[in-house]
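Quick illustration, no need to memorize.
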Amino acid sequence: MPQRPRFHPIVAVFFLWITLMSAIPSSASVSDTGNPGGDESDESAFLGDALYPTKLEEISPKIDAKSKIAVLNNGYGREATLFFGLYLPVRVVQETDLPAQSSSISLLIIPSGGLSHLNDPERFRMALGRFVEEGGMLFIFSQRFGKDYALFPLSLGDSIRGYGWLEGQSSLPRSATLAMRHPAVAGLTASRSNLNIDGAFTAYPQNGKPLLRNSVSGQPVMLVYKYGRGSVIASALFTDWAYPHLRATWDEVALFSKLLKWAGLSLSPSAPKRPDSKKSAPVLPEALPAMGFSLQSDHEVYEAGETATFFINLWNYEDRKRTLHVFYDGTGYEVQLPPHGFAQLTHSVPVYSTRRLWVYFHDEHEIFLQTLKKGYTVVYPVNEEK
């Protein structure tokens, strides 16, 4: 008698995941090729026990229409809903639900990519501003492009600039340093943490306070500022996307646990607790590095033959002049940096295959300082024959 085919557990998890992801309502998705962290997706392989043990077969959406924490149903809204379900049930709101539901929400989450492909961006910008101005707290994950930051609530005369994940260089191991002690980041147990970041801020409101900085560039990757009676926490983190893709870390889980408590929310008894959490001395902020480096591009996905433009940024955080040597694509450049100065090199090149640009930095004495690499993908258009 023939045996019945056995249903492999991996296949079971896959079908469960498909069912799960379709169980959460969604009106929009990130349509552009490329996800946060896509340029350095292999970094998680080096973290070992630092990764949070995500069990896909145990993930389930926890939704409560009356919850005080709301997730915008745009971008990677499904992933954000699943991640915050670790801590407490959340409500899912549509773009048009604000400002009608604003008074019943304490914390509004904008998921990774949540500020792209909105039906009415200007109306939503005004709704966000009103929500925060009236006392709400807004948390924003990493966005696709720096231009998306224009939707942040901002006072007259203020601005916020930077790079999104399709422009910035992602990193994970010991990626962020503590810039200042603050209740929002009280969950971190070390001055340098393993966080999924992609992008950075290069300018922020006058009353803004950097909470976390990129450990290589020194630029903020999480900052907080007041707006009206409320607060905005802007970040380059993409923990929401990382969680169901097996890349979230214990540092991130602990970070958001304390952040949610600071926002005045009560966590579920089943909320994860770091296994090695012990009372220890307060974690002290790290000083800015002597030199900061970053490597950006205008996109991470190109059609064959398109011109890719890379931006090589250098910051001098010291009180003295520095002369640095930068090498890439077989060419070297000498860069003069005044005290607390900034310089940028631009490199444009037609691209025909998926690869990485490698950049090497040396000091005045030819002593090696840093290597950065920026990955990008090249696609070939399909020729449709009639």
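The chain has two domains: 9-262, 291-379.
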